[in-house]
Amino acid sequence: MLLRPLLLLLLLFSLLAPSRVLCHVLQSHQFGRTAAAALREGGGDYGGGGEPGQQRVPGHALRPGRSACSSLCTEHGVCNEELGRCDCPINRTGADCMQLVGVPELQQRCRDALFGDSPDLQACTSASASCSNQCNRRGSCRHGFCHCQPGFYGMDCALSTGPDGKPALLQGSSYVVRKKRPHVYVYELPPSVTQWVNYKRLDRPTHNLFTQRLLSSGARTVDGDTADWYFISVRCRMADSHLVLQAIEYVRNTWPWWNQTGGARHAIIHTGDLGVQEIRSPEVDQLTRNATWLTHWGLHTSKRDCCAWSTAHRPERDVVIPVFISAGHFKHFGFDNNPMHPKFNGKPFEGRDQLFFFAGRICGDRKEPDVGVWPNCRMKNDAYSATVRQKVHYHHHNRTNFTVVPHASAYDKELRRSIFCLAPLGGGHGQRQIIVAAMGCIPVTIGDGVYQPFEPSLDWTLFSVQIAEADIPRMHEILEGIASRPNDLRAMQQRLHCAAQHMLYSSITGSVLADSGKYDAFESTLEVLRAMRDYPDANPADYATLDASFRAFMECADLGAVAPPPPPRPP
C-alpha cells in the first residue's frame, strides 16, 4: 500500500528536477549534509511558485512580478529567482524554510559546518556570525546566512531580476562589470556549502576572502554564456573530496557550462598543505582533469623517494596562488614598519649587514636540532620540509654572517638587516617566500620540482635565488657570489617591491607597501587566468613573451603604455 504513494512522489519530483539530479538525490551522500539535503533543505526545490513541472533554466526570463518560489520562502529564507530554489538558514528546513530543524539534525549540520564534534548550537546559530560582503546592505546577517530582502538573492544578496527578466548584479548601485578581463561566472551553490561554515575554524581563509573579493571586484558576470571563467566556491582544506565531487555534480546538473566545456575554465581553490594530493582519488582526478586548481602547493614532479609526496600540480592547467597573510599577522612579521614603504625614502636596502637569515622549525617534531652530527633531528625518517631545513642547519648554522636558528626574539629586525632569507618548504607549501619578500629580503627558495606562487608565469629568477637541493652544502658560495656583484644584487632588490605586491592580498587587507592593490595577489590570479584563457596551448612561462600587457602587469608597469590584451577567444 505504501509503494503507490512513494512512486507518485518520485514521479512528481522527476518533473520538477532534471533526471540526473533525481538519481543523485536517491544515491548521493554528504554534500554539506547531502546533495539531496542541499536541494531539499539548504536549497529548497525547483519549481517553487512557477508552473508545475517547469524546469528553471539559468538566464531565461522570469515572468515580471512573479516569484519563482513559494510566497512563504522569503519569511525565513531566500528565493533564488534564477533557479526557483528556496535557500534556508542552518536552523531551518522545508521547501519554504518554514520548519525549524530538530536538535539531532541541527547538531549534524553544525558538525558539518565545522563547529566541532560536540557543537555549541548557540554559537552555530549565533546572530554575531559574519556574512559575505555584509549582505551588500540588501539583507540581514543571520547565523552566517544572508537573509536577503525579497527580490534579492545570492550568497551576498547581490543578485536580483533585471528589467529584462534576467539576473542582474547589485541593481540600483554603480556596479558595472569591469572592462578588464577575465569575466568570471560564480556558481551560486546551496548555502549548505557557501554559508553554513564556521570560518573561524578555518586556519586558511584564502577561499572565503578570495570569493568575497571576486563577488564585489567587477570581474563577476551573470552572463555565463560570455564568461571567460567559472568559479566553484566549495570549501577544500583537507580530505574534502566528497564535497568537490558533489559540488561538481550539482553544477553539472543545474547549469550548462561544465558540460559544454568539459570542465575546462572552471576554477576551484584548495588550501591544504599538499594541494589536491590531499583529496586525490580516481574519481576526483577523472572529473577534474580539465578543471583548474588554485592551490598553494606547486609540486609538479614526484618526491616519493624522500617524502611520499605525489605530483599535485599541472603547470599547464593549475595555478599556484600565494598563502593569505592576514592583517592580524602584519605586526608579528613587522609589516607595520615595512622597509619598502615610501616613509623609508626609497632606501629599503640600506643597513643590511647580515648575508643570510632563517628562524623557524628545523625538525618535524619541533625539537631542537643536534649540532655537528647528521642526521641532526632525532625523529626517525624525518622528511619534514623534504629535509631542506635540516640540511641548511647542518651545513650553515655556524657560518660567519649566517643566522640559522629555531627561534629569533626580534624576527622582524632580522628580516630588515638581512640580504637573503631562506624560504623553505614545510609540511608542504611554505609562506616565508611571501613574508621575506614583503620585508625586502631576497627569498632563497629550495625545493626541487616545486613552483612558487604564479610560477612559471612569473619569473622568480629575477628577484629570488633558487638553489637545488644538491647545492645546499655550497649555498654560501652562491650567495656570496651574488652579493659580490652590486649591480646584480641591486637589480634583484629593486624588483622585490613589485614581486611583493603580487604576493599580498592588499585589495582585501589594505596595503603595507603603499600600493593601490592594482597588482596584488587577487588581481595577479585573475591576470594569469586571463592569459590561460587567451593562450590555452602556450607554455605559461611564455605568457610574458606572447602578451605585452601580461608582461607589463607582472612588471607592475603602467598598463596604459602598452597595447591592450587581445580580444577573448571564441568558446
Briefly summarize what is shown:
With about 575 residues, the protein is an alpha/beta fold. It is about 30% helix and about 10% strand.
Structure characterization notes:
With 571 residues, this protein is an alpha/beta fold. The chain has two domains: 300 residues, no CATH class; 183 residues, Rossmann fold (3-Layer(aba) Sandwich). It is built from 21 helices and 21 strands. Strands 10-11-12-13-15 form a five-stranded parallel beta sheet, covered by helices on one side. Helix 11 links the parallel strand 12 and strand 13. The radius of gyration is 26 Å and the shape is globular. The N and C termini lie far apart (53 Å). The N terminus is likely disordered.
Offer a few descriptive terms.
single chain; 571 residues; Rossmann fold; 2 domains; 21 helices; 30% helix
Query: Given the helix and strand composition, which structural class is it?
Result: alpha/beta
User: Strand count, sense and closure of the main sheet?
Assistant: 5 strands, parallel
Shape descriptor: globular
* Mean pLDDT over the full residue set: 86
> End-to-end span in angstroms?
53 Å
Helix content: 25-40%
Q: Tally the beta strands.
A: 21
- What's the arrangement of strands in the largest beta sheet? 10-11-12-13-15
Q: Kindly estimate the percentage of residues that lie in beta strands according to DSSP.
A: 5-15%
Characterize the quaternary organization of these chains. single chain
Unreliable stretches: 1-42, 44-64
What does the radius of gyration come to?
26 Å
Pfam families: Exostosin_GT47
Membrane topology: Single-pass type II membrane protein
GO cellular component, one term: Golgi membrane
Protein name: EGF-like domain-containing protein
